[in-house]
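Subject: for your reference before the review

Hello V.,

The reviewers asked for a structural picture of the protein, and I figured it would be easier to keep everything in one thread rather than splitting it across files. Below is the amino acid sequence we used in the manuscript, unchanged from the supplementary table.
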Amino acid sequence: MPVDFEHLEHLTAALADAVSLDDTARSAMVGLLAVRDVFRVGVAVDDGAGRELQFVSSDEDRLGPHWIRWCSIDGLADLPLVRTVRTGESVFLSAEELRSRYPALAVPNDQRGTQGLATIPLLADGRCLGGLLVSWSAPQAWDAQQRAFLAAYAAQVAQAVRRTMAYHVQRSTAEVLQRSLLPHSLPDLDGLDVGAHYRPGADHVDVGGDWYDVMPLPDGSVAVSLGDVMGKGVEAAVVMNEVRTAARAYVLLDPDPSTVLARLDHLVSASSSAEQVVTMVYAVVDPTRQELHLAVAGHPPPLLVPAGGTPRVFDGPLGPALGIGVGPWPVSVLPWEVGTGLLLYSDGLVESRERDLFDGIEDLRDVVGALEDRRRNARELCARVAHALTPGGAGDDVTLLAMTSVAPRTSASRTFGGDTTAAAHARHFVDEVLHDWDFGDDLVERARLCVSELVTNAVIHAGGRTTVTLRSDGSHLLLLVHDEGGHGRVRRRVDSAPDSISGRGLMLVEALSSAWDVEQSTDGTLVWCELDLADAARADLAS
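And here is what came back from the structure prediction:
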């Protein structure tokens, strides 16, 4: 049958914008579905040694407007597509040939009305990366022109698959390297809450120069910093690591912000990377938790978040970037009261091709201002702000560090093994601690259920040790479950299948708590939820 080769031109244009395997598979399937009599398309990718293939089809439950759902198929199964991937050869089957050679496929294909089926290998650099599956609703002649079209189509898809797989490997490597240079965890501090968020940019695969740090000092004060080395790649990462390491040493010698920044400026100016420029915000909270000493070196100004008030952008004196060789770096002394917050951020959060820096800072202030006081805590602030300002990701790295002053609170923590007994031991721990704190039975039972579900989820997805922490500030009980692995495995309810164990568990947590969320760091995943003490007290009175 005649084939319109304009489909190849459309495919080329679509694949040019593909940056992920999902994008490539979607473009390949949508393009072939436009071919006459084609009603079903599938893409298989060999992600390893061929023992298992990742497969997605154009079926309604697999291909949505904004998502793709892959599944796994046995790399040794007796299927036309598996044979093509294994041998690197195309298979062309009429309806009768499909029934006789693959009887197990006869019923589903007859129900679909398949009159012809072909599987074509995705060959690139002498290797079969996967295969295309194409089904027709009318008999096919399989003439030379049609086979040439399918081979050319598959060749373009194969090159795109090779490119996106390489991109994925490079990007994953860069992200692992970047995260290895950031703090593996944040310290637990008296009178302070700290939270951080890091997400690599989408426009590159090189490691970036963003960093943040939190450093408790021997006299009880705490130093926090966030900075950015201009540029990307290994050189920027090396400078970033040098500056962060040197800053920790200089802080121990003298934590005064102007002194620390002056010493870092000399370090960057004298380094072999003469073209590197570093921007940075550095602050110290005094041991009494009453004053904040702040200095800015060429970096976007931090956001000050007063308790129950309107956030404001720091408008004090600013110093130049580090590495230029000029100063000074004036220090501003600000009051630091209970409930006050400080938000440091990189320019990737507020600046993009579509939004200039100053508009982005105003947007940041508006987003934080719209949050209720309870949601302005350091633990939530970073994640909520990053999601609001960069919902679909950002071209540059996005890094945030938040610190809030908190009143004294009651806390207890215990670590459990990564086995099936962890949930039971965690429930016993919660029961013991909360009864010791004189909480009512309704709250204890809610907390037991939430912790049980979260610990079970952590054991299933991470398999390592799990730490459960309970904190009470007089109005809410905070439950935190931290695992030592499984980065990125926990998802909010919208991404959870209704019939999955973790999906039901997280839906139960959402129903029982006033708020919950998931945070990832270099040392694992933290899932937390809050229980309202007033609601629990009312429930106890009613019972």
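For the response letter, the relevant points are probably these. Residues 486-502 have pLDDT under 50 and may be disordered. The two ends are 76 Å apart (CA to CA).

Happy to draft the paragraph if you're swamped.

O.
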